[in-house]
């Protein structure tokens, strides 16, 4: 019996010193554990992608709300009409201005001297479109004006993705309210 024990110990010592001679592989349990871990990680990634799209929409809505409030303040303090429009295909937004003392023939000019009002491109999966101004529907390329008086007509803008949509609504005092993201009814 002691010879058997010695030969088992010798065999183990030889495997430890020369691992290329051993026939080690993965056990079924090890393979199953790896598959379970991969399945859990894949599930978490899927969930984070969907919630990330919603989170990105909420972050962009906050960014746009802040920019709109800043633009309304600029209109009041500089005595100019400031406007916002969606970039082509709804890929973002741009702010415009007309000085209050300009002739009637002056058209909108892009705001280029104010970083918070610089043109902004949305992430690839988000789109912006104007919905209405003063109760009237708007074209996709319409400019929504923010008046220097501080009193504006109510307007609504929509942020949309393939899965979610939310609205930014203003009241006559220029306050802006964002709705919670809701499942989209149709693709952008």
Chart the SSEs and their pairings:
Blueprint lengths: L1 H16 L10 H51 L1 E7 L5 E8 L9 E2 L9 E2 L5 E7 L2 E2 L6 E3 L8 E6 L3 E7 L5 E3 L3 E2 L5
Describe the structure.
Strands 5, 6, 8, 9, 10 and 11 form a 6-stranded antiparallel beta sheet that branches. Strands 1, 2, 3, 4 and 7 form a 5-stranded antiparallel beta sheet that branches. Helix content is 36%, strand content 26%. It contains 2 helices and 11 strands, in the order H-H-E-E-E-E-E-E-E-E-E-E-E. With 188 residues, the chain is of the alpha+beta class. The longest helix is centred in the first third of the chain and has 51 residues.
Bin the strand percentage.
25-35%
H-E string: HHEEEEEEEEEEE
| Major sheet summary line | 6 strands, antiparallel
Distance between the termini: 79 Å
Given the C-alpha coordinates, what overall shape results? elongated
Helix count, per DSSP?
2
Q: What is the structural class?
A: alpha+beta
Work out the helicity level: 25-40%
Tally of DSSP β-strands:
11
Q: How big is the Rg?
A: 30 Å
* Overall pLDDT confidence: 84
Low-confidence stretches: none
């Amino acid at each position: 019996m002691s010879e058997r024990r010695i030969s088992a110990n010798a065999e183990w010592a030889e495997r430890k010193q020369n691992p290329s001679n051993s026939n080690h592989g993965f056990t079924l349990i090890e393979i199953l554990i790896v598959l379970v871990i991969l399945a859990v990680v894949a599930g978490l990634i899927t969930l984070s992608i969907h919630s990330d799209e919603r989170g990105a929409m909420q972050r962009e809505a906050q960014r746009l709300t802040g920019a709109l409030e800043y633009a309304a303040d600029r209109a009041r303090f500089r005595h100019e009409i400031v406007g916002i429009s969606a970039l082509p295909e709804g890929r973002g937004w741009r702010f415009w201005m007309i000085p209050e003392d300009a002739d009637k023939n002056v058209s909108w000019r892009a705001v280029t001297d104010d970083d918070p009002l610089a043109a902004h491109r949305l992430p690839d999966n988000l789109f912006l479109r104007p919905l209405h101004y003063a109760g009237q529907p708007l074209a996709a390329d319409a400019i929504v004006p923010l008046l220097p008086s501080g009193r504006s007509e109510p307007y609504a803008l929509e942020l949309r993705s393939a899965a979610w949509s939310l609205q930014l609504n203003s009241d006559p005092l220029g306050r802006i309210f964002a709705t919670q993201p809701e499942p989209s009814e149709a693709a952008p």
